[in-house]
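Sequence in, structure out.
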Amino acid sequence: MKVHIPKAVLFLHAFPLSKEMFIYQFEAFEKEGIPYLALDYPGFGEEPPLAGEVSVERLTDFVVSKINSFGVKKIVPVGDSMGGYIIFDLFRRYRELLAGLVFVATRAEGETEEGRKARYNLIGRVKEEGTGFLIEMMLENQTSPATKRDQRKMNRLRCMMEKATKEGIVKTLRALAERRDNTDLLPEIDLPTLVVAGKDDEKVTPPEIVRKIAERIRGSRYVELENSAHLPPFENPEGFNRVLLDFLREVF
């Protein structure tokens, strides 16, 4: 089988979710006839864990292998949180694949010493207690007040998180703790770039953190979405789709 897809959008999900966090984008893209790829990281959703240690770079290589297997020549990655870290690595090592960038509720900075210790503490707890406490914490920290009032959405998020394997969570937490700082890349980015923050993201990536990405990328567009915290594509899909589709019409 040989497939040639000139250009497609690539959806990169947040931790500890799955590609299903972009379900509202799938519907909109199919209606608009926009080609897209969406995948689960190893150990999340439907993807089994990788053997051995995991790093952001190894996850990027996994993503690129999937892109190549589908015959896609150019991508516009849409990365929420952890997905943004993969976008930075794609730009650093696979720049020729990229046609534009969409950073969502993410940051360029590497992990702080305090943050690294917190992630390793979480690893210890997950190994001892399982993933239940982590899911409750993520549901609380990642969602806006409006999302918390929507029981259907909260249940869907919980189901996505419950699919994540213990092994996948432990290995990925370590990868997040040890990720590199990407602030040096920002002035080099010369591709059309959209940066989206959730207005209610107080606990994970507050808007002032996300905005720093846009401020250092020449010509980028910055948007804050209401009624969303760390997961704008899922929490406020109408607003997110409007902004994303406008951006993609220019890029495509």
